């Protein structure tokens, strides 16, 4: 069956699914394979659960309403590209080390003031998530917003060849996924694959004109639009404060966001820049940013008992961890506590980077630092303000939570640490 023929079957379905537990009536089920599972084995169950078709790549599982292909994953990707080309709508792609999902959400709320948009759900930003997002585009969609993640070289360019973006933005280059990339130089090289694709195809680039690396990489390219605090050649946005929420100014309009930390300033700037390019009116830009409230453990501010909790437990790397700590130190409260969990995917840099974060906390004006996880437990420390626990269970058992009163508390760690559990304690 050709991709064109498969697409006709796809148009008869309501949506696409890769999980039999989430199959809805009239879905098209793709029987993906993983290291420990074979989706072909669940194709019949997907059909019984309501799927209209099941795409498989092992003949022994062929039955009524299955569609046999050579490779299910490759077919999913090719179908997504075909569907994207057929709709022929503007696609905005974004990547970066930190802030991708928040920036994507901000761009989405800004553009929905004028357009019918479809954006990546959550952080489904890999070789499976990107095709699924593209296949969720409909005839009513006017702009698609695609988040792209990577932990190895060549992944971003691979995703670009699936999504074929018309516009792109890179949030930043930081110390994320060092285990896969090997070095910060490779991080820059990998994320810049988005720029390279857009330049090669003469597409449009949005960028942070105050970022030295971005500015250098784009100096010879003209099809671009940047934001800056200082350079009048670019779209000017002024940072006013982050105490704790980011406050900024465009033209004569002051915007009071619900995002904490100066590190979120550039995320907001990107959304304002892109919204301006697509002719969203100033009052709608202001309204969109001011009404956006972060969720899903990302820079959430939660009042609990006598404490103000900054919950940023969705993910962590050395760059985002340092930014969050600096933001905590600038809070005006009398008592400031950092509860930090291990950072993962740092490879051979793990020991050095965890020690570096501990050293940073020692030099900041914080009242107490609590470190959780095997990596932090191995660090060297003589600061009486710092207490380490080898695991979450040790922390849960040994720590006296009644000691935390009238405090501003930062909770941050990698996703695998699931530090949002602290809220229940």
Explain what the structure shows:
The chain is of the alpha/beta class and 425 residues long. The protein folds into three domains: 3-70, Udp-n-acetylmuramoylalanyl-d-glutamate--2,6- Diaminopimelate Ligase, Chain: A, domain 1 (3-Layer(aba) Sandwich); 89-290, UDP-N-acetylmuramoyl-L-alanine:D-glutamate ligase (3-Layer(aba) Sandwich), CATH 3.40.1190; 300-424, Protein-Tyrosine Phosphatase, Chain A. Helices cover 34% and strands 22% of the residues. The chain has 16 helices and 19 strands. The strands form three sheets. The protein has a nine-stranded mixed β-sheet with strand order 6-7-5-8-9-10-11-12-13, sandwiched between helices. It has a six-stranded mixed β-sheet with strand order 14-15-19-16-17-18. Helix 10 links the parallel strand 9 and strand 10. It is globular and about 65 Å long. The termini are far apart.
**Radius of gyration, Cα only, in angstroms?**
23 Å
Number of domains: 3
- The first-level CATH class name of the largest domain: Alpha Beta
Looking at the overall shape, the CATH architecture of the largest domain is: 3-Layer(aba) Sandwich
- What is the approximate shape? globular
Helix content: 25-40%
What name does CATH use for the topology of the largest domain?
Answer: UDP-N-acetylmuramoyl-L-alanine:D-glutamate ligase
Unreliable runs: none
Trace the largest sheet across and list its strands: 6-7-5-8-9-10-11-12-13
Number of helices: 16
Biggest sheet record: 9 strands, mixed
* Average residue pLDDT: 92
Strand content: 15-25%
What gap, in angstroms, lies between the N and C termini?
A: 55 Å
The chain-level structural class is alpha/beta
For the record, what is the CATH homologous superfamily label of the largest domain?
A: Mur-like, catalytic domain
Quantity of strands, as a count = 19
